[in-house]
Amino acid sequence: MSFKQETGKDAPINNATDSDWWHFKHVFLRLGIKIEFLCEDILKLKGQQDGKIES
Question: N or C: which end of the chain has fewer CB within 10 A?
Answer without folding.
Answer: C
